[in-house]
Each structure stands twice: as C-alpha cells, then as structure tokens.
Amino acid sequence: MGLPCGVFNTNYKSEMAIVRTRTQWTLLIVGLGILFCLPFFLAQKWLLMINVAGISLIAALGLHILLGLCGQISVGQAAFVGVGAYVYAYLVVHQEISCLLAIPVAAISVGLVSLIFGLPSGRVKGFYLAMMTLGAQFLLLWCFGHIAPDILGGGDGMVVPRAAMADISLRTEAQQFYLIMPIAIIALFFAKNIARTKIGRAFIAIRDNELSAQLMGISPFNYKIVACFICGLYAGVAGALWAQYLRYIEPSQFGLMESLWYIAMVVIGGLGSTSGVVFGVLFLRSLNELVTHVGPALVTAWHLPAAFLQASMAGLFGLAIMLFVILEPRGLAHRWEVFKVNYRLWPFPHL
Prior knowledge:
Elements: H1 12-16, H2 22-37, H3 44-69, H4 77-93, H5 99-118, H6 127-146, H7 149-152, E1 158-159, E2 164-165, E3 168-169, H8 173-194, H9 198-208, H10 210-215, H11 220-246, E4 248-249, H12 256-269, H13 274-301, H14 307-327, H15 331-345
Antiparallel strand pairs: 1-4, 2-3
C-alpha cells in the first residue's frame, strides 16, 4: 500500500521487508549517522532529554508488546522498571558486578518476576487484569521501601556508583548517550520484528479475538505468559539504565503516575504500532519539558501558587489523552502513515 512508483513486491520476503528500496536504506543510514553525531552538536540539556526519552522508550516498548500486540493491559509497568533498577543497584553495589553484566541479569530477573504476576492473566482480563496489575504496582512499591532496608536503602533510597565501560567512567551526557541509544535502537529493532514472527502473530490473534485464537490452536495462556516475560525483559533493561544514569534510586521514582505515563505513550502513539511508541514518547516527553520550562515563568509572571505547576502538568497530561482518544484514536502513527501515503502519491492525491 502506497509504495513508490515502480516498486513491486514479487515475493513474500520483499512483501515483509521493513526497508525495501535504496532510498529507504540511504535515509536509514543517514538518519542513524545524524543520530549518533548529535552529542557533538547538542548542549547538555538536550542530550539529557534524549537520554531520558531513550530509557522511557525501552520501557514503553515492553508495554507495547504486552498491551498493543497481545491486548493485555498493565498498570504496573513503572513498578517493574523499579525492580530492574533495584536489582541492578544491588548487583553493582553489593556484588560489585560490572555494568554490562548487571543489565542483562536485571532484565532476566524482572522477566521472572513478571511471570509471577502474569500467571493469573490466563483467567482474568480487561478491567480485572487492570486491577490485578494495579495491585502489583502498589505491592512492589511497598517492597522497595520496606524489604531489606539495610540493603536496598528503604525509603531513603540507594546511591548507585557511576557506570564504566572498558575502564571509562560514564560521566557526561554524551557518554551516557552512547550507552543508552544503541540499547534503545536494538530494543526497537526486536520490538518491530517480533510482530512478524509466529509469536507476534499469535499475540495479535489473541488481542483481536481470544476465542478465535483458541479455535486456531493457539494457547492464550501460554502466549500471555510469554508476552508478560518479554515486557518484563524490556522493563528490566529500562530500570537498569535508569539506575546507572540517575545514580540514585528511591521508591517514589516508580509510582503509579509513571505507569500511567507509559500507558499514555503507547495509546497516544497508536496501539499496536512500534513507530507509534517512538512518537508517543517524543510527544509526552516534549510536553513535559515544555511545562517544566514554561511553567515556572508563568507562575512568577502571573503570581500563581507553586502548586499550579504540578496541577497544570497533570491537566495537560489528561487533556492530551482525551483529545487523542476522541479525535485520533489510532494515534500519531496513523497520522504518519497518512502523511507517507500522500507524499508517495503526490501530485496525484486523488489516487
């Protein structure tokens, strides 16, 4: 649909290819080149925004696989990110394991924890599944502050040592960029391709009609468990990167509001679309930065109460979700697809 003039799919491989033409390959290579050159041109504050967005993207991609592909809602993604952060911190602080080894261990650990809360998904769905994951959110948050406070820091949190690669300490935002961004791109690559595999097609079948999926020989319970595990893997990687990036973690960083942010990123970007997750993360993080920078100026200029800034952020957050659900329920990804089709058919939009 909407292929450039003269481009035809002659076999299944070309039909399923993500990058099909030389022009697309050129744009991809140039785009990656520009992306990895950004630290040479951007100021530290912009790199900070990109690094935080990269970590958020990884966590949101995990929720995209669980919610967007498999149709299983989770209101506790931030808590699972917190598990990854605490596992990483424990390994680095108390076991003195290197950064590159602690990240995959944290990811697998969160994947296993997510299985525990994913087991009931075979019997509950919809509102009941949302309530169960909401309970997981509060339960894990309580564990962060009360389980082994002498090891995990309790309510005071933990200080995480600076990560190092090849004896090079990651001190600057540019150095953090070259750790976070490659991992985010790899996570995006796997999330994009998982929908094209047997597992991904089973996820989509369960999301669209669970009864029909069963009639086709798909086990909804088994694939829901797999979706929970993959979502946990992504959350673990995001949590480990967050801990090493911020170098300090405490329970309030992984509250319910953060879980709602991840859901909003997936919904605003477009359910079921991997590129939509990228758009959703960029949109909401940009909105957050806008309020953070413009809000204090408005508070000072108009003599507003200090609580106005926090209230305005929550208000804009809710307003953005409502507008997208009402005006563009298919999210930013749909707008992007419409733009691509119109661009490829121009100057013959009537076709």
